[in-house]
Every structure is written in C-alpha cells, then in structure tokens.
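Async update (no meeting this week)

Hi team, since we skipped the sync, here's where things stand on the single-chain job. The sequence we agreed to prioritize is pasted below, unchanged from the tracker. I ran it this morning and attached the output directly underneath so nobody has to dig for it. Comments welcome in thread, and please keep replies under the output.
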Amino acid sequence: MTPVSRAAPVLRHRSAAVLLAIALGVTCWFAMAPSLAPPGHHSVDTYLHVLCFAMLAVLAWLGFRGRSLALVLLLLAAFGGSIEIGQMLVPGRTGSLSDWLGDVAGIVIGFLASHSLLAGLAQRWPTALRGRLTR
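Output:
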C-alpha cells in the first residue's frame, strides 16, 4: 500500500470529524436561537430532531470509526440532552423529554443506516476495494 493510499482513510476521517464539528455548532445555534423555533406541530419538531441527530450520527460514525464509537454516540445523546436543558433558559423555547428521545432515535437510526450501508457496499464491491471501504 502506498503512502497516499494509507493517508486517504485518515483524510476521510478528519474531513468527517471537521464536518461533525461544524454540524454540531450549527445544530446548537438553531436549537438556541429564540426566533428559530420550529412550527407549532409537535410531530414536525420530532421529525426535525430525528433527522438532525441521524445526520450527526452518520458524521460521527464516519469520523470516529475504529475508535470508541460507543463513547461518541453517548456524547451525542448528552449533547441532545444539554440542548433540551439549555432551551429551558431561552425565552420562547422549551426543552422536552420527547425531543431528547427523538434525538436518541435519530442517533440510533443514523448509526444503523451507516453500518448497514457500509456492510452492503463491502459485499457488492470487488474484494480489492473492501479493505479501503472498511477503514
């Protein structure tokens, strides 16, 4: 394996980790801005939580694969909980257990989707590419 091909997985991990950091910041900003509260329908709010945290989980899975992924996913759940607590301090916003449960559901969905997608790709691609996909 050449030095360039060994560096490619590291670069992908770093890029995903940087995107995760940016996404966490954007999520926090949207969650704490009083004027950006989601529409009044509770189901829309729950779907937004699931979607947002599923995307965060995919980025976490890509950025920290091969490391303590369970810890990263627990930290994402703690991040979601801290947002709900923080929203109780923001005028016009409220924190709720159902929103946090939506966050956790999104984390699980994002992790399972990432894992399933990679497993499916590894089975369909030629053997020579499998090693590169699973790193």
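Quick observations from my side:
The longest helix spans residues 3-32.
The chain is about 80% helix and 0% strand.
Reply here if anything looks off.
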